[in-house]
Here is the input.
Amino acid sequence: MHIKKYILVFMVFLSVMAYGEVKSYNLTNETNLKLFLVDFINREYKLTTGKDLKSDRKVLLTESILTASKEFNISPLLIASIIDIETSFRNVIGKYGEVGYMQIRPATAKYIVEMYIETFKKYDYDNLNLEWIKQRLLYDPKYNILVGTAYLEYLKELHGDITHAIGWYNGGGNSYYLDKVVYKIAQMTIEYPII
Here is the structure.
């Protein structure tokens, strides 16, 4: 049983890592990916809240995920999985001060923006005032998703690979969170074979 689980984990991560090496999408793949993300985001949000997410918010989240994916060379499926696990695409404040879709603490966000300041300058997101960061994390999905993805990139650089980075994203450094993310990605690829 454990061997099958690890084979599945290995296959999913090979596909995620292979996808992550491609910095741009061709039109057909990007169109399919956008359609998938819009549908997936709405479905997961609706499962949690019982109502549809507003169309403009679905588009904004999709565009933000794709922008962050291209900027940090991380699979949009991985980013969407983390957002779904963290908040089910709800913009919330966590019980330990984590903010927004990717549940980032403002102090962590400040550190990450400092680490990748040139990237954040491109989007006019180089303000390092903690109150500004907290407000931006909560009210600007693009900023929140860029910071969360940059944090994942930072963890990847720190721990040597994406699997360890995912394990540390939620602070645990263990395989429990990694297993949840892998399961979510596997679920996506089974339910949406066009991606």
The mean pLDDT is 86. The domain at 2-191 is CATH 1.10.530.10 (Lysozyme).
